[in-house]
Amino acid sequence: MTQIGAVQSWWLGVTLQLILAGVLLQGYAAAQTTAAPHKEPMRPEKGIYVVNSSNGTACLLASMGLQLNITFNSVSQNKTVRNIVNLQPNVTKSSGSCDADTASLRLSTDSEKTNLTFFFSLNTTSNKYHLSNVSLSAAWPDMKEPVSADNSSLDFLRGTLGFSYMCREQQTLTVSPDLSINTFQVQVQPFGVSGDQFGAAEECQLDEDDMLIPIIVGAALAGLVLIVLLAYLIGRKRSHAGYQTI
């Protein structure tokens, strides 16, 4: 009887671990689907932007949804506010340039008088590129004065020459105290473009973590289930053996 009680206690402990693992899995799933703050607009539409070289061939490809977070002095509210605006691809013009180790993508809208430029740099020794500079100028109707921001010491969207950088998860690129940019479903290739198609994608760490965590949790749950089954079988065998000796 003592053996049966010990097995039952052990069974209860493992069952509690299973319940805890299930709660953790549900919590992870909830965290992945948590809605954005109520004041934020809906997820921005993904735009496709192409920069051509002097000979007319594509030299920079970008596909992404963009959301601007800008702090400015509001005329209507008579105070400093932070406004979040989606960049609309259908009213956004793209241009830019490509050199051996630098490339730029300029996005502009006439209605909002917004000019956003991404600058990429290539290290020709390591064949690695990154987003090194972002500049913005905006003159929205509600702004008391135009807003400008520029940061030339950034290190975002890192990739390898000949490959595209991809990140499906939302990222926030902090440019200055008055400007940050939310990116969605980014795929960009500023160097080594062949034709009009992206090269093989190098996925960001956020995407890799998003895939890895459910695998780890699932494997842990499967392992606990196996342990419970083995414990149950061992417990049944011992309990039958105990009854036979009485």
From TrEMBL:
InterPro entries: Lamp2-like_luminal (IPR048528), Lamp2-like_TM (IPR048524), LAMP_CS (IPR018134), Lysosome-assoc_membr_glycop (IPR002000). The keyword RNA-binding does not apply. The chain crosses the membrane at residues 211-234. One of its GO terms (cellular component) is plasma membrane. It is a single-pass type I membrane protein. Keywords: Cell membrane, Disulfide bond, Endosome, Glycoprotein, Lysosome, Membrane, Signal, Transmembrane, Transmembrane helix. Residues 44-193 form the Lysosome-associated membrane glycoprotein 2-like luminal domain. Pfam families: Lamp2-like_luminal (PF01299), Lamp2_2nd (PF21222). It is found in: Cell membrane; Cytolytic granule membrane; Late endosome membrane; Lysosome membrane. Residues 213-244 form the Lysosome-associated membrane glycoprotein 2-like transmembrane domain. The keyword tRNA-binding does not apply. GO terms for biological process: establishment of protein localization to organelle. Residues 1-21 form the signal peptide. Disulfide bonds join 167-204. Belongs to the LAMP family. This is Lysosome-associated membrane glycoprotein 1. It comes from Notothenia coriiceps (black rockcod). The lineage of its organism: Eukaryota, Metazoa, Chordata, Craniata, Vertebrata.
